Amino acid sequence: MELAVYNIEGNKTEKTVALNDDIFGITPNDHVIYLAVKHHLANRRQGTHKTKERNEVKGSTRKLRRQKGTGAARIGDIKSPLLRGGGVVFGPKPRDYSFKINKKVKTLARKSALSYKAKEERIKVLEDFTMEEPKTKKYLEILRNFEIEGKKSLLVMPDGDRMVQLSARNVPRAFTIRASQLNTYMILHADHILMMEGAIKEVEDILLKR
What we know:
By secondary structure, the chain is α/β, with parallel strands linked by helices.
């Protein structure tokens, strides 16, 4: 598969890039995509949720009323889960939600996600560029040139250009990522992917283990 290379003005250049069919042209595997996205979201969870149980609630242990003779149900102290302000029964506790999946599964998931985007013609290749200083207005112009302003976009860079990252940081629904950190979730989350020429080579080296 060959794609034209664009400049940041949104115009085609004379260059083209051949995308490796082993990455951008495979038959996508939906199940490994599901596993990779589930793995990514689970590993992002803090797991710090907590409720107080009966023994952790502040209050007296005095029995509120006698056991028999009142005509009402028996009851314990003020910390009873049946009462407002009492402890919580079987409430959430801090836990680690992360789990592991095989490297081959993660690799296949990224290839499958990229193949989906390539088939949908949602990938555009840009010439490598840098910024001398953070300019949100300039980054907005780039998105406007490709008619994707306001849409979920992902710029894949060969390295973490700090100025480009800062320029895109305040743009709604615009994300940037290094090629070495590209993951299945970010690929699928974006409606449009802009990949620099250098990023394509790095992605291919990583996924093909050159």
